[in-house]
Every structure is written in structure tokens, then in C-alpha cells.
Specification:
Elements (H helix, E strand, L loop, with lengths): L11 H8 L1 H22 L7 H5 L1 H18 L9 H17 L6 H29 L2 H31 L14 H24 L5 H10 L19 H24 L7 H22 L6 H10 L3 H31 L9 H57 L7 H14 L2 H7 L7 H8 L1 H21 L5 H18 L5 H4 L6 H4 L1
Helix pairs in contact: 1-8, 2-6, 2-7, 2-8, 2-13, 2-14, 4-6, 4-17, 4-18, 5-6, 5-8, 6-17, 7-8, 7-14, 7-15, 7-16, 10-11, 13-14, 13-18, 13-19, 14-15, 14-19
Amino acid sequence: MGAVHAKPALSTVQIWNMCFGFFGIQIGFGLQNANVSRIFQTLGAEVEAIPILWIAAPLTGLLVQPIIGYMSDRTWGRMGRRRPYFFYGALLTTAALLIMPNSPYLWVAAGMLWIMDASINITMEPFRAFVGDMLPERQRTQGFAMQSLFIGVGAVVASAMPYIFAQYLGVANTAAEGVIPDSVHYSFYVGAFFLLASVMWTVFTTKEYPPEDLAAFEAQEVGILHDAGAAGPKAQHRSPKQYFTTGGLWLIVSGVATVIIAQMALEKELFILSVGGVAFGLLQIFAGYLAQRGRTDNGFSEVLADLFAMPQTMRRLAVVQFFSWFALFSMWIYTTTAVTAYHYGTTDPTSLAYNDGANWVSLLFGAYNGVAALAALFIPLLARRIGRKGTHALCLLAGACGLVSIWLIKDPAWLWLSMVGVGIAWASILSVPYAILSGVLPAAKMGVFMGIFNFFIVIPQLTAASILAILVDQLFGGDVIYALVAGGVSLALAALATAFVPDPHEDGAHTRTAQEVG
């Protein structure tokens, strides 16, 4: 592309093309989020076991996203930097969507969730970094909002498909015990087609900047800021002593917690957190071992070093993400169970009332995603008036009101009002944090930092999988509806935490010079 000095703005059509793949990706996620709990229950899962079965999704993201981010940062070939991952991830995801509804047993469905989520993550993770690569700072809020638009539209299509097949096309919505209804089968098949087609559209209509152009853009980008702790292209590795000390503390505390859980026969879900803490401690000790021997030029050491070298903005956003995604995960895993029990008065997955309620939840999920698609058009405009942080806090509060109102509203026909607030929050969660974050990340590490940022989506989901079932059983007396109220409270806390996030581009921080970047 020749010598360049400033990253050029892209046209609306170009931004549309580069983001269109998210339409299909979200169809995959939408089918997963709205139907997997239904599939699990149909195949015999008890309600209290559903959160444990769902941990496949966040665990897969925890492992896959930083690896794919690290690899895509270092990829350049005939297909570009990020697009090879779009291409092959889409092929794998398409296959997983075709297989998932044909799972004959619960353990097969649980395993397919792992495979499907890994495939979606391979495709999805580079899309976040793609916006940072391709757009100048002034267009990134628009770019991430465009992704939110396609996410919303894709999720609407995914959520509505079982209802459309059942109500308008005469496809069976019920089946014998242990058999997944045909309406779910056909929805996954059509979703697989849309995913493959939309991702391939992005792959073949978008060209990427080569690494040397990205380096030149970064050197001149006004948005390269003095953000304490921002890592440069080369990871600043911690000393072996630091790794051994913090890793040892994590290992001891988490190990003791694991023993206490086992000895006192506490709820097995708590092992997710305690064993996770043990694993994190061991990883740090292993990183210290490699650092002690000077063997830090590898993906594992660099990802862990970057985790500890996050910019301050990223660390503060992590808190916001924790509370936001705890709420979302509680909604995804419990809305079907809560609405069918609280509003339809049944817990029998073979009953007509349950399946009518499950289809209504699928439509409600479509409604909040439709609202998100519309809200995405206005978020950049609102951000220009009140700032990105104020916009995000306001949207999160709308979501908090939406989740709590599911408990307050008795007639399920009016639950679409709850989804308005949820949809506004969802649009912002998918765009504003990434727009803020991308402005403080170095171009050479955009992928790996976006992958690390996913930790703070995964950790709250693992936390929710660990404690929500306990809260429902011990604190809420088995009333699943209160898990959604807890999600509303969590979104309110996320809104509060947003006030403490530094956004250097809007807070008037000084920019780095090209020499400081180098």
C-alpha cells in the first residue's frame, strides 16, 4: 500500500463489509444461547445441573481467545492477518451447528457445546482486533457499533427461527421424551448456512493493511496515549521471583479452599473457582521457571506477561466487564427456566406450556437483540454528546431495570418491555468498552490484548456457573426468577464502576510522541 502516515477513514460500505461477518457469528451464538439449555433439559439434565453444563462455553473462550489473538498478531500471508481465522473458524462452526441438534445423549450435547464454542471463538476473536487494525481512532466507536448492529440483527434471526418454523411453517415444536424437536433442528441448519455465507462475505470483500503499514499508522496515530502500563510490541516480562511469589500465594490459598470444599462436602460448583485458582497459580510458577532459564520467547510467556502489563484503562474496564457479564450469563442460563416456571407455571420440558414458554423466551431474546441493533445506531451519537463512559453507564442502568422488571411483570405478554432495557445495555456492552480499549492498545498486540480482555468476560461466567445454583437453592428458596434479579443488581454495579474507568481520548490526556512509541 506504499508509504503512509495516518490511517485513512473508511467509507460506511467498507465498515459494513468488514463487520458483516458478525451477523452470522451471532446467529451461531444466538442459537446456542436460546436453545442449549432447552436441549440439555430435553436430554435429561436437571435444572440445578445446567450451570455446570454451561461452563464449557466460557472455559473454551478462556483458552481459545488469547491463543488465537496471539497467533493472529503474528500472521501475515495471502489471506491477510485476521481473515484466515475468520475463514477456517467459520467452516468449523458450520459443522458444529449441523451436529449439535442431532446429539443423541446429554454427554454428547455437552461435548458439542465445547466444540461449537471453540469454533465460534476462533472466528469471533480476531473480529475485535480487526476493527482496531482497520479504523482510525475517530471511527472505532462507529465500527464497534456496526458490529453491535449485526450482532443484534443476527440474534433476532436466530431467536425467531424456532418460533417461525413452529407457528408459520408447520414444523413440530414438541417431540417424544428425550428427542429434540424438529423446530430446533431446522433452526440450526438454516443458521449454519447464514453463518458461513456472512463470514465469507467479510473474508472476500475486505483487504487488510500489512504489518509495516500498521506500524507506520501507530507511529502517527494521535490516539497513541500516555497510558501507564500499556505494553509495547515486546512484552515486559516479570521477574522469576514475582511469578514464584504470586503464583505460590494463588496456589496455597486456592489449594486450601479446594480442600475445605471437599472436606465439608460443599456444593461441587465451588470447585470451578478453587481449582481455577490452583491452575492459575501453577501457570505462574511455570512461567517463573521459564523466565529463570531465559525461555520467554514463546506464546505462553508473552500472553501471561501481557496479562500483568495491562493498561490502567483495561484494568478498570475489567471490573465493569465482570459485573456486566455476570448479569448476562445469569440471563442466558436461567431465563427459559425462570419464565416457564414463574410465568407459565411448569417445569416439565415435555409439556406444551413449557415449550410455548421456551419459544416465547426465544422471541424475547430476539426482541432484546432487535433493540440492540437499533440502539447501536444511536450509541455513537450519544457518546459524542455525553462521552463514552456516560453513555455506557446509562445503558447499563437501563439493562438493570430490564432484568429486575422480569420479576415485577406478571403477564408474560408484557415481558418485551423488559427486553428494551436489556437490549440497550447489550448494544453498549458489545461496543463501548472495545472502543475505549482499542485506543490504548499497541497495534502489534491488538489481537492478544483483545483475547486477554476476554478473560473478564469468562471469569464472571465461571463465577456465575459456580455460585448461581447455590444462590438459587440456598438463598432464593429454589425460585429461579431471583437469579435474574441478581443479574439486574450486577448491571447496576457495572454502571457504577464505569465512572472509575479512564478514557484518555475523552479525558484530555496527553498523547505519546512517535519517539515514545518506538
